[in-house]
């Protein structure tokens, strides 16, 4: 076991982001603005000597990862790889719906009215459980299902990483927020989700996870 650092970046803005739609395992392309903020983030990270680069298997993450790696000092040695464990949360029946409406339907029976309120008052794991219960097909992920695949992803990275490696991982808003809420080092508050193309720093040390920086903006 060793210590290494994961540079966890949220993908650039997509059309579903722009239209405030639930975008878990469903996908939509990056907008022109999303591509531009990814390019700006790539320049800010260009001198970070990444040892490896990963993204979820969503097109929005794959495309953002390529933009980042194409500008990196180690680009000749980087071969971006899909890692499905770090997909976004699966919203089941609610995929593609208006986000505000979907979360209202999910949370109102529990005395909550928004995703932001749930994050502050009950935490994201409870919100995941509420969504699975509200899904008429019960296909949405609950907290146990979600963390099983995320933790398997961390274990995979443990198996390929070397001491002091810096690894790029392009993932998603709720996933980054969930990891940061669960494994934050206590120096920051995790209520709002990370901005597109913002950076969260995750240290894996002897199989333990600690988030040392959350949602740092790389672009103005």
The tally of strands reads 6
What integer value in Å does the Rg equal?
Answer: 17 Å
In the CATH hierarchy, what is the superfamily?
Phosphoglycerate mutase-like
Helix coverage percent of residues? 25-40%
Q: Number of helix segments?
A: 8
Give the second-level CATH assignment, the architecture.
3-Layer(aba) Sandwich
How would you name the oligomeric state of the polypeptide chains in this document? Answer: single chain
Share of residues in strands:
15-25%
Task: Please write the CATH class name.
Answer: Alpha Beta
Biggest sheet statistics? 6 strands, mixed
| Unreliable segments of 5+ consecutive residues | none
Sheet with most strands: strand arrangement:
3-2-4-1-5-6
Q: What count of structural domains?
A: 1
Mean pLDDT: 96
- Distance from first to last alpha carbon: 38 Å
Q: What structural category arises from helix and sheet content?
A: alpha/beta
User: Shape from CA axes?
Assistant: globular
SSE pattern, N- to C-terminal: EHHEHEHHHHEHEE
Report the CATH topology name: Rossmann fold
